[in-house]
Amino acid sequence: MQNSKSDNHDAIVRHALEMFKMRGIKGVRMEDVSKELKISKRTLYEKFNDKEDLLLECVKLNADIQREKYAAFMEGSDNVMAILCFFLKNALEEFSKYNAQFFVEVMKYRSVREFLDSKNEQEAEMKKAFFCRAIDEGLIVPGLNIDLISIMNRAAVDNLLKEKAYEKWSLQEIFLTFIGLFLRGILTEKGRKELDLYLKV
User: Fold this and answer.
1) Do the beta carbons of residue 140 and residue 134 sit within 8 Å?
2) pLDDT for the residue numbered 1
3) Rounded to two decimals, what is the model's pTM?
4) Residue 192: which residues within 8 A CB-CB, separation 6 or more?
């Protein structure tokens, strides 16, 4: 007898998302998902065409979860540094849940890559507006090319993955080092003081 809760579409996606995070994408087979949820492979394939289809749904769900989390926080705060520090703390917490291989493998799936590229394009203007606001409030050094900074960030992340830095250091340490180098480099003295104040909270 199948578990009616486990064969629910959303329940499958939520469970598979955690499996992908912990094991990486290659480390999870459709058979593994069906076994853990105690559903038949036939049921699983009736809901998802293949592993890439399931992975895409997982990535979309995770994007929705993070978006809702940030939206809820921003409803209660319009302080730029508070929002930035919430993002940093949340990102650090999230990285602790991931197998580094996930980030290496995820971009190999075309549909997922296209979704993430589209998501990044949609969020680009919002991020740019946030940076401009931080500049206006004296937190970030004025006159910087925000578009160029964004390109440099992506190149740095790509290179970290290419060099397999995750094999030597944890994702949390890589993230903290990256932020320490990048973020503090563009903050004003006022911005650095506020950053240190909020990170202590």
Assistant:
1) yes
2) 38
3) 0.88
4) 184
